[in-house]
Automatic annotation (TrEMBL):
Any one annotated GO CC term: polyphosphate kinase complex
Protein name (record): Polyphosphate kinase
Active site, per annotation: H445 (phosphohistidine intermediate)
Gene3D superfamilies according to UniProt: Endonuclease Chain A, Polyphosphate kinase middle domain, Polyphosphate kinase N-terminal domain
Pfam families the record matches: PP_kinase, PP_kinase_C, PP_kinase_C_1, PP_kinase_N
Domain Polyphosphate kinase N-terminal positions: 13-119
GN (gene name): ppk
GO-annotated biological processes: polyphosphate biosynthetic process
Length: 691
């Protein structure tokens, strides 16, 4: 990676780990926002917890692994690994206590006021307790496995993210104390309905008992003949960041499957406990898990609030956002009748903006029509993540079975989707698709599809390039952009790109694309510096960037230099931002905002004023080292005038002064500002609210 500019101030970068925690704090602010529907607040509590789990499994685990090497590596903001871990630990513990407090002190009473209650065993009426004893006997007891700890039974393996009961028992004959562990099964609902209604109707009272409470009330059945003295709940987070050693002579599938098996046994990086945890039991856990006391977090109330998504799934529409039905892009239908995607694209490009434009009637229909069209000769596509019942994969299988040439690059190293992608790869291979796994040492993260069609004796190519995955489920909750086009230049570029991904081509230059790892950083830095030259010469200049994360030091330094030259820079960064805006003599002309809302802002788009000849780009790459150096990423130059105007509107709407967002200050703090909900305006302007 090229070095950052040493002539700029040494303190110009914010810490990426702390910046990510600031992003998750913005998610938590939405859970605290009493203007949101109650179950939407519950959803954000769940998302916060799930986000933090992954942060520990990957980022904290990575820092600890680097610390164990003994190397004195400093982050770009000048912190040692030890200093980063200390700051991150303090910040995460503060956030986790705040998170637990929001649930117990704020949201729980409001849920109870709406008839949604979470009880303890001691709160149950006798009739309810009797019914739940039968449920325990029939549904829970058979899947429980108490594990003793003594000289004949070593301390058991504790799986990552599982809930566990640490149980103290005593032999009544000898008086000797014993320790045992009971895992709370994850294939039984976490929240058990106390009444048969279970909240299935909007007017029903939904009362639940946590599964761990049910198990704790019946520990005597697990340890007959012993006295159960006490029990305490705990949860372990483990390192789940895979390190696949890629060897050109080894089957990547086999190497990855071997590493997936190892993931289960990664070292512990966090131990969550309840406030009532017995100190002696805690000492046992810390010792046996080989974890530092600083990695122990005492959580108020329930552990594992990611499971609150079970409550969000209750049928209580009055406590949620209004349902939304994405609209078909107006160019892809005539009234209620779908149009041929191919005929539409011959008239011009179509830019789709999900979830406001339906994924099912645009990108998915493009692949499905290609699979069914007898004139289509070949389909080539990249798959990074998709859904468990993917209609895209089904269409590709049907195309191969119909005799079409189908080439699918399945990225089997997509984090936490590895097993699913291995399964998809094998299903596609069995159907006759040509399946490849990309380039050694690189993840293929780009979102591209190429359809080759014979029309009146002439080959024509149709393309899709997007910012999001080919996943119809996440396309309803992720904000993304995509271009459907029949532009011959884009078709030629994707043909060259697929030849690089599937063969031995060393193509590095393209007509309408910037392709990482060689082309995206250099291409963007060149264009940023061009804007700086325009500003210095008194010509029109300006840069707008919308990405999930901005971390790359060389791109940040180029933006600082552009600001110093007088270029107005507007950045819309959902998550991590290592750039300091508004610093005198460095970044007065840079403004950074973040939108966090109902939909996950996920699109990547960039615009350059370029002295009145603007350039617009969309693609898959965030501005991070991994994306620019270790992934195949694609940015597409958008040339269609209508698509350019639409992108302009997206930026103008999101960056308007009164839009509800968070603004980043020079000291690294984020301030909530504005009132107007940009996502809601797009919903009402592009989609249809259900009656």
């Amino acid at each position: 990676m090229p070095a950052a500019d040493p002539t700029l101030p040494a303190d110009r970068f914010l810490n990426r780990e702390l910046s990510w925690l600031d992003f998750n704090a913005r998610v938590l602010e939405l859970a605290e926002d009493d203007s949101l529907p109650l179950l939407e607040r519950v959803k954000f509590l769940s998302i916060f917890a799930s986000n933090l789990d992954e942060f520990f499994m990957v980022r904290i685990a990575g820092l600890k692994r680097r610390q164990s090497t003994g190397l004195t590596v400093r982050s770009p903001d000048g912190l040692t690994i030890r200093e980063q871990l200390a700051l991150v630990t303090e910040r995460t513990q503060d956030l986790m206590h705040r998170h637990g407090g929001v649930f117990t002190k704020d949201v729980t009473p409001l849920l109870e006021a709406q008839g949604i209650r979470i009880l303890h065993w001691s709160d149950l009426a006798d009739t309810d307790a009797m019914r739940l004893r039968e449920y325990f006997r029939d549904q829970v007891f058979p899947v429980l496995t108490p594990l003793a700890v003594d000289p004949a039974h070593p301390f058991p393996y504790i799986s990552g993210l599982s809930l566990n009961l640490a149980v103290s028992v005593r032999d009544p004959d000898t008086g000797a104390p014993r320790f045992a562990r009971v895992k709370v099964p994850n294939n039984v609902p976490r929240f058990i309905p106390v009444s048969p209604a279970g909240g299935q109707h909007s007017d029903a009272t939904a009362v639940f008992l946590p599964l761990e409470d049910l198990i704790a009330a019946h520990l005597g059945q697990l340890f007959p003949g012993l006295d159960v003295l006490d029990h305490h709940l705990f949860r372990v987070t483990r390192n789940a960041d895979l390190e696949v050693e890629e060897d050109r002579d080894e089957d990547l599938l086999q190497a990855l499957e071997r590493e997936l098996a190892r993931r289960r046994f990664g070292p512990a990086v966090r131990l969550e406990i309840t406030a009532s945890m017995d100190p002696q039991i805690l000492d046992v856990l810390v010792s046996e898990l080989e974890i530092s006391p600083s990695d122990v977090v005492s959580v108020p109330g329930l552990l594992d609030l990611a499971s609150l998504m079970e409550l969000y799934d209750l049928d209580r529409p009055e406590l949620k956002d209004d349902p939304f039905v994405p609209a078909t892009h107006p160019r892809l239908s005539e009234g209620e009748t779908p149009k041929s995607v191919f005929a539409t694209l011959r008239e011009g490009d179509v830019l789709v903006h999900h979830p406001y434009d339906s994924f099912a009637t645009s990108v998915q229909r493009f692949i499905e029509q290609a699979a069914a069209d007898p004139h289509v000769l070949a389909i080539k596509q990249t798959l990074y993540r998709t859904s468990g019942d993917s209609p895209i994969v089904s269409a590709l299988i049907e195309a191969a079975q119909a005799g079409k040439q189908v080439v699918v690059l399945v990225e089997i190293k997509a984090r936490f989707d590895e097993e699913a992608n291995i399964s998809w790869a094998r299903s596609l291979e069995r159907a006759g698709c040509h399946v490849v796994y990309g380039l050694v040492g690189l993840k293929t993260h780009c979102k591209t599809a190429l359809v080759v069609r014979m029309e009146n004796g002439v080959i024509r190519r149709y393309c899709h390039i997007g910012t999001g995955n080919y996943n119809p489920k996440t396309a309803r909750i992720y904000e993304d952009l995509g271009i459907l086009t029949a532009d011959p230049r884009v078709g030629a570029d994707l043909t060259d790109l697929f030849n690089t991904l599937t063969g031995y081509s060393r193509q590095t230059t393209y007509r309408s694309l910037l392709v990482a790892p060689r082309g995206v950083r250099t291409g963007l830095v060149e264009r940023i510096r061009r804007e700086a030259r325009h500003a210095a010469e008194g010509r029109a200049s300006g840069i707008r960037i919308k990405v999930n994360s901005l971390v790359d030091e060389q791109i940040i330094d180029a933006l600082y230099e552009a600001s110093l030259a007088g270029v107005p820079v507007e950045l819309l960064i959902r998550g991590i931002c290592a750039l300091r805006p508004g610093v005198p003599g460095l970044s007065e002309n840079i403004r950074v905002r973040s939108i966090v809302g109902r939909f996950l802002e996920h699109s990547r788009a960039i615009s350059f004023v370029n002295d009145g000849e603007p350039e617009w780009w969309i693609g898959s790459a965030d501005l991070m080292h991994r994306n620019l150096d270790r992934r195949v990423e694609v940015l597409l130059r958008v040339n269609d005038p209508a698509a350019q105007r639409q992108l302009q509107q997206v930026f103008d709407g999101a960056l308007a002064p009164d839009v509800l967002s968070w603004e980043l200050s020079a000291d690294g703090s984020w301030r909530r500002c504005g009132q107007r909900d940009h996502q809601r305006e797009l919903l009402t302007g592009r989609g249809e609210h259900a009656a």
